[in-house]
Amino acid sequence: MAPLLENSAGRLELSLMGPYEHTHHAVHTVPEGPFCTWFTTGAVWLAKMDAWRRIGGFDEAIFLYNDDADLCLRLCGAGFHLLVIPESRGTHEGGMSVPDTPYVRWLKDWHQTWSHLFLLDRHGSPEAAARQGWSLLWRHGAKTLLYILLLRPKKVRGNLAKASAAWAFLQGRPSH
After folding, report:
1. Number of compact structural domains in the chain
2. Which of 52, 96, 111, 168 has the fewest CB atoms within 10 Å distance of its CB?
3. CB 51: neighbour CB atoms within 10 A?
4. Strands 12-13, 35-37: parallel, antiparallel or unpaired by DSSP?
């Protein structure tokens, strides 16, 4: 079970996904009453320990990002249901656990990309993950070169992190 989350500014933070999806999407309208879904953010959860143990808890292969999506997909695959209780509320202070430095931003961009490909590989298809990995490598590699020429170091760093993560995934390297 999960509560409805708001950010520190009081705005709704509700991301859901449907059956056979591997990417969650922001939703701006809250259904009335409790509802089942195939994804709830891992910021606040209440889970039965037998369900947690049966699926093996968090996968240590995923260091950061999409660990909650992987857990949701494995729970649903094992026959468990995910329930959001809108009457229950929580505040999600996203990104507040560490200061936002260039190194932390690199790590976030890198891990978001790598874990997205890992999730697609595990729960979608290895072929689709490889295709998307190559696409991300080429796109962010090209953007890296462009932003070098335009002298935009922040854009260079973000795109290089994403290209590097795609390359690491394609080579079969772990996230940490």
Report:
1. 2
2. 96
3. 15
4. unpaired
